[in-house]
Amino acid sequence: MARLPGSDEEQKQRPWGALVVGGVLPLAVIGMIATVVLGGRPQGASGATSGHGLDVSGHFLLAAAVILAAARLGGLLAEWLRQPRVVGEICAGLALGPSLFGRFAPDAAGWLFPQSAQQLLNGLAQLGLVLFMFGVGRELSGMRLRGAAMQALLISQASMLVPFALGTTAAVLLLDYAAHGVHPLAFVLFVGCALSITAFPVLARILADLGIMRTPAGRLSLFASALGDGGSWLILAAILAGAHGSSPVGLLVNALAAIVIALFYLRPLRRLLVKWPTMEKDKDGSTTMVLLVVLVTGTAALTASIGLHQLIGALLVGVAWPKGNRTAVVAAERLVSTAASVLLPFFFFGFGLTLDLGALRWGASSLVTLAGLLALAVLGKVLGPALVSRMTGTPWRPAFTLGVLLNARGLTELVVLQIGYQAGIIDRRLLAILTLVALITTAMTTPMLNMFGLKPDPASDAKETAEGPERTVELEPTGAVSTERG
Question: Is the pTM of this model over 0.85?
Answer without folding.
Answer: no
